[in-house]
Design a protein that fits this description.
12 helices, 14% strand, binds pyridoxal-5'-phosphate
Length: 379
């Protein structure tokens, strides 16, 4: 079925087309000057020292853990209310993910109390995920991590240019990871970026993204080097210049797009804030946000009623989603010991409504009217 109002709309025009054409005509399409340019611009916009472009964010999370020497026997605290890659990456380095519940429906980010309850002397890192572009309790988490001598990795896939007390998300912990998958705030098809203020970490990530090789083929093609050594067991997690050229255009559009999203969110809040049947996460936040998604949580609901409401909205042409099915409930992670009641409630009782810069006031009005009539019917 095709929806009249999709969940997300790609923010592409002739500028992305021209950038790709230009790259193809330059005859250099793999990792090269456009990746370097994209990285420089990303660092500048986020006010961070080092940015490393990568094939995707899953690779960024993997390399983050590898660069911090996290391995077998180590534990990594992580949310279950996230995309599976957040946790799968821990398994790639043979470490053990330890699931933490989120705080509440109004703050569905990793709970500090859970972090404190689940830390052990094997804990080496915490992966935080800034849900929907809204920050985790970073002051408290960073203080606790420092006291406990553990790393903080930020899964900032939802949060490019989102802020926490004036600083950009992804730049607060040891390493920040971003995704440029099609439906993210910055879209390059596939793509990712790892950011850090630590020079040694950045150097190690650059080695690991390209087989542990000491030079890249672009440098060799320019005659800067003819030989290379392999000094670490690396991977091929490189971005290419075609994607980087799209990323550069997307990055230029991002600030303007986020202002439009802020307006869309305001519109939603004006229609929905007074409803007693729902909780709107982060309703009281004032920090600038990327507003990657617009989820709502149904109060006193069941999964069955939620699904009925989603079907009802789909029948009116409105696409919705769920962020997220709990990772700990997927077959490969199932284990009776997990106790994550808030995460499970949100997974079963939330609906993500459409949000993108070009979503009109009329469309928001229609979505909210449809939601309200659905609530009247099923709640
Ligand atoms: C999209 C996403 C990822 C994975 O990013 P890829 O670039 O597709 O590998 C990881 N974590 C979160 C929270 C995401 O939204």
């Amino acid at each position: 079925m095709s929806f009249t109002i999709p969940l997300f709309k790609l923010n592409f025009d002739e500028r992305e087309e021209e950038a790709v054409l230009e790259t193809i005509r330059s005859k250099w399409i793999s990792t090269g000057p456009r990746c370097a340019d994209f990285e420089d611009r990303f660092s500048e916009l986020l006010n961070v020292d080092y940015s490393v472009s990568l094939a995707n964010c899953t690779g960024a999370l993997h390399l983050a853990l590898a660069a911090l020497d996290i391995s077998e026997g180590d534990e990594v605290l992580c949310p279950s209310l996230s995309f599976a890659a957040t946790v799968n990456s821990v398994r790639y380095v043979n470490a053990t993910p330890v699931f933490c519940d989120v705080s509440s429906a109004s703050d569905p980010t990793i709970s500090l109390e859970e972090i404190k309850a689940k830390v052990t002397d094997k804990t080496k890192a915490i992966i935080v995920m800034h849900f929907g572009g809204y920050a985790c309790a970073m002051d408290e988490i960073l203080t606790f991590a420092k006291e406990s001598n553990i790393y903080v990795i930020e899964d900032a896939c939802h949060a490019p240019l989102s802020e926490y007390k004036g600083e950009k998300l992804g730049t607060l912990g040891d390493i920040g990871c971003f995704s440029f998958f099609s439906n993210k705030n910055i879209s390059t098809g596939e793509g990712g970026m790892l950011v850090t203020n630590n020079e040694d970490t950045a150097k190690k990530i650059r080695l690991l993204r390209s087989h542990g090789m000491t030079t890249m083929s672009y440098e060799r093609s320019k005659g800067h080097a003819t030989r290379y050594d392999i000094v670490e067991l690396g991977y091929n997690y490189r971005m290419d210049d075609i994607r980087a050229s799209i990323g550069i255009v997307q990055l230029q559009k991002l600030p303007g797009d986020l202002i439009k999203r802020t307006e869309v969110r305001k519109n939603y809040l004006s229609h929905l804030s007074s409803l007693t049947e729902i909780t709107i996460p982060f309703a009281d936040r004032t920090d600038f946000s990327s507003n990657y998604i617009f989820p709502i949580v149904l109060n006193d609901s069941t999964e069955e009623k939620r699904d009925q409401l989603r079907d009802y909205m789909h029948a009116q042409g409105i696409q919705t989603s769920v962020h997220y099915p709990s990772i700990h409930q997927f077959s490969i992670y199932q284990d009776d010991s997990h106790q994550l009641p808030i995460t499970e409630y949100i997974s079963g009782n939330s609906i993500t409504l459409p949000i993108y810069g070009s979503l009109t006031e009329k469309e928001v009005e229609f979505i909210c009217a449809t939601l309200k009539s659905g609530l009247n019917e099923f709640y």
